[in-house]
Amino acid sequence: MPSISPPRASKIPTTLPNTKPLPxxxxxxxxxxxxxxxxxxxxxxxxxxxxxxxxxxxxxxxxCDPHPDIIGVYSDYAPFRRWLRWVPEQAAIDAEAxxxxxxxxxxxxxxxxxRAGGTGEWVGLMGFSQGAxxxxxxxxxxxxxxxxxxxxxxxxxxxxxxxxxxxxxxxILLAGRAPLSNLNPEILKSEALVGAGDISEGFQFxxxxxxxxxxxxxxxxxxxMADAGLHLHRILLNQYCExxxxxxxxxxxxxxxxxxxxxxxxxxxxxxxxxEETGVEVVRTV
Length: 286
Description:
Blueprint: E1 24-28, H1 35-41, H2 43-49, E2 54-58, E3 62-64, H3 71-74, E4 80-82, H4 95-115, E5 122-128, H5 130-152, E6 170-174, E7 181-182, E8 194-195, E9 219-224, H6 230-239, E10 246-251, H7 261-277
Parallel strand pairs: 1-2, 1-5, 5-6, 6-9, 7-8, 9-10
Antiparallel strand pairs: 3-4
């Protein structure tokens, strides 16, 4: 008879942690869902990450129809929301108002978590699909403000949340696609970026993404090999991220968040590696 390997001993602690003092990650859902759905979809990741981070789930500011992929399971979880437009039927909004609404939604969730007892540093972003696009765009916007401050010899101005001293160290991009959104058109002028109020579907990509639109802050990219948007995920990784700053985990799945331990363990391990390299202590569960 073939030998059967014994089950691997779990490194996940048996008691739930007090997350209030832990470093915090802001979690941005995809288009056509909401924060509650994203948290439920991420349950296999949460099972590990909750011992190292306080995860804060934020609702996008704009209402929309549910994403077709979630109707069968989450149809009772309305209202459904979006950060950005992806089809013409969604109400038009100018870039300035869109940026302001996104910043307000984020700031509200962060201040509510402060009132709920969270005290840890805000260290990272985790987004799925449209939330991943936004997470990467937020890193780029931060880079732009920091670059301007260096040139001018001043302190870095507050970003779209208006919260002083906020400095994202990394982003976890689950099925994140290009192009990135321009969240600071006063500074960022690159044609490789789509306006915050514009529709990104059908975007005409530049032959080359210049340095201004290139991410150099650490990112983890999680790609499903059966995802219909995989070619756009690869453009984000290969053209919008500086070589040597991005990690990639590929798994045999479609446009969703991994649930099986064989996939989850690889994603979680990569998150731990990235966090530690940015100076964040973690409790390794894999």
